[in-house]
Amino acid sequence: MNTLWKERRVFVTGGNGFLGAHVVRMLVDAGAHVTCLVKDMQTTGCFYADGIYRRVDSVHGSIEDFDLLFEVLRERQIDTVFHLAAQPIVTEARAEPLSTLRTNVQGTYLFLEAMRRWGKLRSIVVITSDKVYSEVGRSYVESDPLGGFGIYETSKVCQDVLAQTYARTYGLPIGIARAGNFFGPGDLQWSRIIPGTIKALLLGKRPIIRSDGTPIR
Q1: What is the set of active-site residues?
Q2: For residue 119, what are the contacts with CB-CB under 8 A and spacing of at least 6?
Q3: Rg of the chain in Å (alpha carbons)
Q4: CA distances from residue 118 to 49, 76, 123, 189, 202 in whole angstroms, order as listed
Q5: Which pTM value belongs to this model?
């Protein structure tokens, strides 16, 4: 790993988020030069609490700012990208569909186009979700059909298909990770079952199960 990442110029969108902070820490520890796109100035989570922000170059702005994205790629001579910027919470997506679609869909196609125009990337990793799949009543396999009709699910399907389209049409070196149900240090999304349960127990309260038991994972 140290040989692979040493001196590579990596751009991470959403680098100050829960997953992003752990990815950035790994990259920096392995010797990469990391630039993070940071939208919100929150000071909670691993990115700030563990001092990761001191070890990277942070660019403050939005994933919907095409000119900014292209300038970061060009000026920093980026060769590797991890695209993690997203609105990740299903309930928030349902409550705020426009902002979710702007971030997850518009932000993705603008970033893909900026990367296409830059044209000097060695590898691109796009994180989507296991929620891109249609319900099949069993564990998913990669060849299962895409579906999902909630706002969050649809936004991630669009993100996934856009990444595939740019890879096939323009030859961008894109790998897609369809991930889900992350947990670990620094997760402050209390609506998720593990951090929510831990917080409830620390406060002496009963954990809240926000499901009727029908979803299959």
Answers
A1: 152
A2: none
A3: 18
A4: 34, 11, 13, 35, 49
A5: 0.91
pLDDT on residue 1: 60
**Do 46 and 22 form a contact (C-beta atoms < 8 A)?**
yes
Are the beta carbons of 73 and 118 closer than 8 angstroms? yes
Identify the sign of the CA torsion 65, 68, 74, 77: negative
Say which residue, 139 or 79, is predicted with more confidence: 79
Give DSSP secondary structure letters for 171-214.
---EEEE-------TT---TTSHHHHHHHHHHTT-PPP--S-S-
Per-residue model confidence as pLDDT tens digits over 145-195? 999 789 999 999 999 999 999 999 999 999 999 988 888 888 888 888 889
Residues near 143 by beta carbon (within 8 Å), at least 6 away in sequence: none
Q: Tell me the CB-side half-sphere exposure of residue 179, using CA atoms within 13 A.
A: 14
Distance of alpha carbon 116 from the chain centroid: 19
Distance CA 10, CA 12 (A): 6
- Which residue, 128, 119, 125, is CA-closest to 171? 119
Q: Rounded to an integer, what is the distance from CA 179 to the centroid of its chain?
A: 9
Beta bridge partners of 116: none
Question: Would you tell me the crossing angle of helices 66-75 and 107-118 to the nearest 10 degrees?
Answer: 30
